[in-house]
């Protein structure tokens, strides 16, 4: 099994800032409240620990350690809020690196698009439909409007209702890559919306009360809809049957990297 050991090392101004050993020292300080005890815990000398912390504090934009000397409760060392947040960020980056190697063997995951790659690495949603595309048109007034998104098949276009504030917050612009999220129950098996699509039934799964239907666009993109068994029977849906489905513009959520 391909299981690389990933050691994240950060340099600032061409000088070592943090590496796994220094992160272990910081975590030990947070746990023990003492630089000397932290050094013992990770099996390094007090001088090595002191020098490492001095270099970190010298390079960091904010102090990492808060040191108290004497006083009613005696002396001690604790991490600053900035240092604790840095440790959390370091751990997140390490996890992302591990996740990145997990998708290396999945040929269906593109590695040339930052949104698609990032979403595959870390984004999990309850929305069954996750469609990638790029913004081709933006129409808005003082409150809200619509964007037109061309999907990754370069054929299918969907109109999405978006407020003006959301357009600004997401920094939407022409040709920007976006991710469209649509919950399966919100896909209707009719042509009642402006987003009407011709599809072919690929698969039907049922628990006796509800059905999950997998549809295929002509381009190969899959869409998933959930409907009561009675609706599926009324429409006489079977594998291979061609039909129409629709997605209301208000039922599509837009996500992107800003």
Report on this model:
- The chain has helices spanning 20-32, 35-41, 46-59, 81-102, 114-122, 164-169, 229-234; strands at residues 10-12, 15-18, 65-68, 76-79, 129-140, 144-151, 157-163, 177-182, 187-188, 196-206, 210-216, 222-228, 242-247, 253-255.
- Strands 7-6-5-8-14 form a five-stranded antiparallel beta sheet.
- The radius of gyration is 26 Å and the shape is elongated.
- It has seven helices and 14 strands.
- It folds into two domains: 10-102, Arc Repressor Mutant, subunit A; 114-255, RNA polymerase II/Efflux pump adaptor protein, barrel-sandwich hybrid domain (OB fold (Dihydrolipoamide Acetyltransferase, E2P), Beta Barrel), CATH 2.40.50.
- Helix content is 30%, strand content 33%.
- The two termini are 35 Å apart.
- With 258 residues, the chain is α+β, with helices and mostly antiparallel strands.
- Helix 1 packs across helix 2, helix 1 packs across helix 4 (81-102) and helix 2 crosses helix 3.
Summarize this, please?
The chain is an alpha+beta fold and 258 residues long. It has helices spanning 20-32, 35-41, 46-59, 81-102, 114-122, 164-169, 229-234, and strands at residues 10-12, 15-18, 65-68, 76-79, 129-140, 144-151, 157-163, 177-182, 187-188, 196-206, 210-216, 222-228, 242-247, 253-255.
Secondary-structure blueprint:
Blueprint: E1 10-12, E2 15-18, H1 20-32, H2 35-41, H3 46-59, E3 65-68, E4 76-79, H4 81-102, H5 114-122, E5 129-140, E6 144-151, E7 157-163, H6 164-169, E8 177-182, E9 187-188, E10 196-206, E11 210-216, E12 222-228, H7 229-234, E13 242-247, E14 253-255
Antiparallel strand pairs: 1-2, 3-4, 5-6, 5-8, 6-7, 8-14, 9-13, 10-11, 10-13, 11-12
Helix pairs in contact: 1-2, 1-4, 2-3
């Amino acid at each position: 099994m391909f299981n690389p050991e990933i050691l994240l090392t950060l340099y600032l101004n061409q000088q070592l800032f943090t590496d796994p050993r220094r992160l272990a020292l910081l975590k030990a300080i947070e746990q023990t409240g003492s630089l000397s005890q932290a050094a013992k815990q990770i099996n390094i000398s007090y001088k090595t620990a002191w020098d490492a912390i001095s270099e970190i504090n010298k390079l960091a934009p904010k102090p990492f350690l808060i040191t108290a000397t004497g006083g009613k409760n005696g002396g001690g060392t604790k991490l600053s809020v900035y240092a604790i947040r840095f440790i959390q960020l370091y751990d997140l980056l390490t996890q992302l690196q591990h996740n990145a190697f997990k998708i290396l063997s999945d040929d269906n995951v593109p590695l040339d698009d930052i949104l698609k790659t990032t979403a595959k690495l870390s984004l999990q949603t309850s929305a069954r439909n996750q469609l990638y595309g790029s913004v081709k048109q933006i129409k808005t007034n003082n409150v809200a409007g619509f964007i037109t998104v061309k999907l990754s098949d370069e054929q299918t276009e969907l109109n999405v209702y978006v407020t003006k504030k959301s357009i600004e917050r997401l920094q939407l612009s022409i040709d920007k890559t976006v991710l469209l999220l649509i919950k399966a129950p919100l896909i209707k098996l009719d042509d009642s919306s402006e987003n009407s699509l011709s599809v072919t039934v690929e698969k039907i799964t049922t628990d006796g009360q509800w059905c999950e239907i997998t549809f295929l666009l002509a381009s190969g993109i899959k869409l998933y809809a959930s409907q009561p068994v009675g609706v599926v029977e009324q429409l006489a849906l079977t594998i291979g049957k061609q039909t129409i489905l629709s997605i209301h513009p208000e039922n599509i959520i837009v996500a992107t990297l800003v």
